[in-house]
């Protein structure tokens, strides 16, 4: 397998674009059936999910909307620790069916702090779609509704995911060689 080099690290091909596309079609089919007539709003978490959401959204055939948010970490009170604040969320989510689109759930900290925040918006339902999940690394209780692939606790890049901001343009997912 042809390995690639990004900065100081080597990566090998791990999930092909064909495999990603097939899984996206399966997930989109489920969403199309489940949310028919509900006009869901997809909420893509930037930056990592841009490629995934672009391919996923093309397979959505029901009436739906999309919005993009960037989560930035900031220090909360000592009881809440570091929490994530959403930038760019201008749509009123009251009574809406929100479908969060994330690139990867690792420790679960990001979604565990963002979803309760989103619940305060009065959304009718909140669904979490993630392309990748590392169950062995997840320490927070996060309910994942649709998962592309469960992967081992190893660093991956490509298909929107970066290593030090590089590698996002790779059309498939690569795994770190250790
Ligand atoms: P969590 O809060 O679940 O630990 O992490 C979520 C974020 O960490 C992801 O949105 C992603 O930006 C980053 N992340 C976690 N694991 C990986 C990985 O293997 N590769 C890359 N490129 N980013 C990761």
What keyword list fits this structure?
178 residues; alpha/beta; 10 strands; binds guanosine-5'-monophosphate
Tell me what the structure shows.
This protein is 21% helix and 35% strand. The model has no long low-confidence stretch (mean pLDDT 93). It has one domain (23-176): Rossmann fold, CATH 3.40.50.2020. The chain has helices spanning 17-34, 50-58, 109-119; strands at residues 4-6, 9-15, 41-46, 65-75, 82-87, 97-105, 125-133, 146-150, 156-157, 173-176. With 178 residues, the protein is an alpha/beta fold. The chain is globular, with a radius of gyration of 16 Å. Helix 2 (50-58) links the parallel strand 3 and strand 4. It starts with a strand and ends with a strand. Helix 1 packs across helix 2. The strands form 2 sheets. The chain has a 6-stranded mixed sheet, sandwiched between helices. A 4-stranded antiparallel sheet has the order 1-2-10-9. It binds guanosine-5'-monophosphate. Guanosine-5'-monophosphate is lined by residues 48, 103-110, 155-157, 161-163. Residues 48, 103-110, 155-157, 161-163 line the site of guanosine-5'-monophosphate (5GP).
Q: How many structurally independent domains?
A: 1
State the strand order across the main sheet: 5-4-3-6-7-8
Ends distance = 15 Å
In the CATH hierarchy, the third-tier topology is known as Rossmann fold
CATH class: Alpha Beta
Number of helices: 3
**What is the averaged pLDDT score?**
93
Biggest beta sheet attributes: 6 strands, mixed
Content of β-strand = 25-35%
Q: How do the helices and strands follow one another from N- to C-terminus?
A: EEHEHEEEHEEEE
């Amino acid at each position: 397998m042809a390995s690639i080099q990004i900065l100081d690290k080597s990566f090998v091909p791990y999930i092909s674009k064909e495999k990603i596309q097939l899984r996206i079609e399966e997930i989109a089919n489920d969403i199309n059936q489940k949310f028919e007539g509900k006009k869901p709003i997809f909420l893509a978490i930037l930056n990592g999910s841009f490629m995934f959401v672009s391919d996923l959204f093309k397979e959505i055939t029901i009436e739906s909307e999309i919005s993009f948010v960037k989560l930035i970490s900031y220090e909360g009170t000592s009881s809440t620790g570091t929490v994530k604040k959403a930038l760019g969320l201008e749509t009123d989510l009251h009574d809406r069916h929100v479908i969060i689109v994330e690139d990867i759930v690792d420790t679960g900290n990001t979604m565990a702090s963002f979803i309760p925040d989103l619940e305060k918006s009065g959304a009718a339902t909140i669904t979490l779609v993630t392309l990748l999940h590392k169950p062995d690394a997840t320490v927070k209780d996060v309910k994942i509704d649709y998962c592309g692939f469960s992967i081992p606790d190893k660093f991956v890049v490509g298909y929107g995911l970066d290593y030090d901001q590089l590698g996002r343009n790779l059309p498939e997912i690569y795994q770190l060689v250790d």
